[in-house]
Design goal:
This protein is mainly β. The protein has one domain. A four-stranded mixed beta sheet has the order 3-4-7-6, with no helix packed on it. A hairpin with a 5-residue loop joins β6 and β7. It is globular, with a radius of gyration of 13 Å.
């Protein structure tokens, strides 16, 4: 059975939770994440089967403030 991987965008020191998942894959090596700037992340992996991908994450930073991160994906397996 292939090993599934998940990527979460959370506040520094925060814990992953299902609602913060931006990527779920299998049939791949472990994905890598590079921060292109403080609000843009790029995820790469090889020949992955992508089960879930979300191209942004919104995180609550205080009572009334939110931060949005853009997520770029460079993965895939035969176009899916």
């Amino acid at each position: 059975m292939p090993t599934p991987y998940e990527v979460f965008i959370v506040r520094k020191g925060g814990a992953p939770a299902p609602e913060y998942a931006v990527l779920r894959i299998d049939k791949s090596d472990q994905p890598s994440i590079a921060w292109l700037n403080p609000s843009v992340a790029a995820i790469t992996c090889n020949t992955a089967r992508v089960w879930h991908f979300q191209n942004f994450a919104t995180i609550k930073t205080s009572d009334q403030k939110f931060s949005t991160t853009s997520v770029r994906l460079d993965c895939g397996h035969n176009g899916y």
